[in-house]
Specification:
Shape: globular
Strand content: under 5%
Number of strands: 0
Order of helices and strands: HHHHHHHHHHHHHHHHHH
Radius of gyration: 20 Å
Helix content: over 70%
Largest sheet: none
């Protein structure tokens, strides 16, 4: 599962590199098509949380906020020093609830609500659990994706995260049933689904049918994307190996998200590098260098996280005393 978290954050970084490139050159439909299989990262994170169950604690909550605060500090200071508006200064100080980090805001809300969902899952009947899953699914997929109700649109909201959390719980609940399915069957289903969706979208890129495929395959509450994420989750759930090195690397995935995906100066630097590469290369060589660049970003951000290891240790010690 820690390997899946590393793969997920790599997909997220690579997706953002393609996103900033496509915004400049929207006619390049091959690169936009690649968004579809890369968009599973966020959902996989929530599925993992639901599978193992979030166990909220003061130590975990403070560590989460501490990492977020330290790596957001340059942006907070810049906002306070260079912008004279009192509203902007207040927004900068409220770095969680008023920030542009939608995933952090939503995940922290899920983190705080998870005890209620955990108690429900422990004390309810199977039919009640299924009804909860169905109710959250109707709100998330039907209201948010099919009829595109604004509050629930695109799946970047706590209702969808609760739905995905419950899916992860059910994957754990029925693990004995899917554990009998052969690894290669799951991997083949995952590859086949991505090939079919990408080919169909590429061939119908400029048509209404292409837009339908996009709506059903790209937003975080789209049914095809959720199925795609579940298949990828099952692929890694069937891999049995132990690696302390992988576990240590995976501790830095949250820092990768903050440092690479949202900080304005990091976005601009990556955007300029990607566009500079595109001036000299295109097609497969361009994608290869882009994939390598994403790998270097993930490795560099994890390295930065581990440079702050004494700070995280002191933060944990402080919360233990509290």
């Amino acid at each position: 599962m820690e390997t899946l978290r590393l793969i997920s954050i790599y997909f997220i970084v690579l997706y953002h590199l393609l996103m900033w490139f496509v915004h400049r050159f929207p006619e390049n439909k091959p690169y936009m098509t690649l968004w579809l299989p890369l968009h599973v990262g966020v959902i996989c994170f929530i599925l993992i949380s639901g599978y193992f169950g979030i166990k909220p604690s003061l130590k975990g909550f403070c560590h989460l906020l501490g990492v977020f605060f330290i790596f957001s500090l340059p942006e907070i200071i810049y906002s306070i020093v260079h912008v004279s508006s009192i509203d902007t200064t207040i927004d900068a100080c409220l770095f969680v609830t008023k920030s542009h980090y939608w995933f952090v805001r939503t995940y922290i809300t899920l983190y705080l609500l998870s005890p209620l969902l955990n108690v429900f899952n422990q004390g309810s009947t199977l039919n009640q659990k299924k009804l909860m899953l169905l109710s959250l699914g109707v709100i998330s997929i039907y209201a948010g994706n099919i009829i595109n109700y604004p509050i629930y649109a695109d799946g970047k909201n706590v209702v969808n995260f609760l739905f995905l959390y419950q899916i992860g719980y059910f994957l754990k609940l029925y693990s004995e049933k899917w554990s009998n399915v052969h690894f290669w069957k799951v991997l083949s289903a995952y590859c086949l689904l991505n090939c079919v969706v990408c080919i169909m979208y590429y061939l119908t890129f400029d048509t209404n049918f292409g837009q339908v495929i996009w709506q059903l395959s790209f937003p975080y509450n789209s049914p095809i994307l959720i199925i795609n994420s579940i298949l990828l989750f099952l692929v890694f759930a069937k891999l049995q190996f132990s690696s302390p090195f992988v576990n240590n690397l995976a501790k830095g995935v949250f820092a990768v998200y903050i440092l690479s995906c949202n900080l304005p100066y990091a976005q601009k630097a990556q955007m300029y590098i990607v566009r500079w590469i595109y001036q000299y290369l295109s097609g497969v060589p361009f994608l290869f260098l882009l994939a390598l660049f994403a790998f270097l970003i993930v490795g560099g951000c994890i390295g930065i996280y581990w440079l702050f290891r004494p700070l995280w240790r002191n933060l944990d010690n402080l919360t233990n005393k509290l």
